[in-house]
Description:
The structure is a single chain. 27% of the residues lie in helices and 32% in strands. It has six helices and twelve strands.
Amino acid sequence: MCGRTRWTREDVVTSTQDVARDLIDRGAIMERAVVLARCQSGGRGRGGKAWTSPPGGLWMTLVSRLASDISRRGLYPLVAGISAVDAVEHVTGLRPHLKWPNDLLLGEGKLGGILCETAGPFVLVGLGVNVCTGAMRIPSPPGSLQPVDLSRARPDMNCSEARGWVEAIARAFDVRMCAWEDCIGSRPSEILDAWKERSQMIGARVEVRTGREQFCATVLDLDVSGGLMVVDEAGSSRILHSADVSVRL
């Protein structure tokens, strides 16, 4: 059972993750908090990659005290992905899907992303979602997915109406994270099953890039810690815990 969530709303910040860390350092968070910003000047994704965060998007960090079994902290990105898909669907009627380890996709475009970090006894779950940002006009690096906005997928909505989704998705995400966090220590298999139901990766051919190598593989499953189980072209099975993975079309 989650306690009451403390909400902090900002205009322009370097990163909601940075604001959340500052709140933790000042002892302002006891159990649970959300930091929500209109835009970020220094947003970042996994591996320190720059994350473009203009007005019109959902830029937030949810802070939660870590589950007692910290050996399962690798399940937090999965829980965050499940919660993000369900929150977006609940508010907009659109159902994104998940790409391991941290991408939220809509069709073939990148709708958003998740960044999980820890600070002392807390986990910081950063969530970014393109709502009505003009994402299609943002150039993407070669080989990366083209950003996509929720508003482009709902032509019946104008930008002013779509921006009303930001707070609603944030609140729905908080509620769903609270519900799923209870499963981390007691029912991890439910998390794995729910993530796979919201992804199209199992059985897919992928290209994997780690810091040391690049290879092609087929996705088999998720392991109990949230790692991606693959078999490479030589027939060797591997478990990935940190890598860039792209689906081969």
